[in-house]
Amino acid sequence: LNDLGGGLEHLDQAIACFESEPHSSRPFRLGHNPGVACFTTSAFLLWMLGSPDRALERADAAVALAVELEHPFTMAYALFHSGFLHLWRREPELVRERAVGVLDVVEDHDFPIWRAVGTCLLGAATTAMDRHDEGLAQIRQGMDLYHGLKTPPVFWPLLLYIQSGACARAGRAPEGLVLIDDALEIAGGGSGKTLLPEFQLLKGDLLLGHEDDLAGAEHCFGRAFNVAGELGARMSQLRATTRLCRLSRRRGDEESWRRSLSAVHQTFTEGFATVDLIEAEELLATGRS
User: Fold this and answer.
1) Band (191; pLDDT cuts 50, 70, 90)
2) pLDDT > 90: what percent of the chain?
3) In the Cβ-directed half-sphere of 235, how many Cα atoms lie within 13 Å?
4) Nearest to residue 77, comparing CAs of 128, 122, 117?
5) Which residues of 199-224 are buried (b: 16+ CB within 10 A; e: fewer)?
6) Taking a C-beta distance cutoff of 8 angstroms, is the pair 1, 10 a contact?
7) Which of 161, 236, 172 is nearest to 199 (CA)?
8) Where are the extended beta strands (E) located within 73-116?
């Protein structure tokens, strides 16, 4: 329903209910533990809403709870989603650590879904650490494994996003554009638009890497900025504004977007050690000098 704040309130209530009961009173056999899912999902929402430190705390809490529960499927679930948050935070070493953890669980327990997505996540980390060919090969292996599954393809848009981002880092913009367009078509086909800002940001980056298409990139970044504003997704809005400010600087007319970047940046009260906030602050400092 595109209500991130309302969704977070429900998750906070669910976590409070979960924490009020002893773990032994919540038996389950199939799938992942719902308490862990509340922590990881709220971590994603907190990141989008502009609370990156709290998001990290929730993701770490999910992994800690999974360890306590000693439930392998839940452990793989928690590690993958925690790793994906680190991918958004642009922390490739931590992404790799979580991906390896997923695959370690898979070695002892035959979970095809986690083998597939964990391999893709490992490939994203490898590519981000500048081992492009190796990382892209890992992602292709994971995608092939995912294609062979009979479960509903719930991860497909995210995996396309992962592969497209790896292509961007490897200098393979045309290939990445095809993948992100597929992801956008899937994400735009439903009622929700939560992932659209990040998908549009990646498409804009790819267009800049493909024949330096400034107009196309600006359109994507502007679309990301507007949708993020509708959602209240301050992190995506900050990322979009940073890119638009850089583009306007190349044209010699950055003042309006620099003011917008300053306005968005001032709404943040945490996360100042994250890469995106550091880059925004550096860009603003350059404009002031």
Assistant:
1) low
2) 83
3) 26
4) 117
5) bbbbbbbbbbbbeebeebbbebbbbb
6) no
7) 161
8) none
- And the tokens for 106? 């898979």
Q: Does position 189 have pLDDT exceeding 80, yes or no?
A: no
Instruction: Specify whether the CB–CB gap between 260 and 248 falls below 8 A.
Output: no
Query: What tokens were used for 224?
Result: 């990301």
More confident residue, 152 or 148: 148
Distance (Å, whole) CA 190 – CA 185: 9
Q: What is the pLDDT of residue 254?
A: 76
pLDDT at 25: 47
165 vs 172: CA distance, rounded Å: 10
- What is the rounded distance in angstroms from the CA atom of residue 278 to the CA atom of residue 272? 6
CA distance 245 to 217: 12
Average pLDDT over every residue of 164-178: 97
Distance CA 63, CA 82 (A): 7
| Listed residue (63, 62, 50, 124) closest to 93, CA to CA | 124
| The pLDDT of residue 22 | 63
Closest by alpha carbon to 240, among 281, 284, 197? Answer: 197
Instruction: Please tell me which residue, 193 or 96, carries the higher pLDDT value.
Output: 96
Residue 3 CA neighbour count, 13 Å, CB half: 6
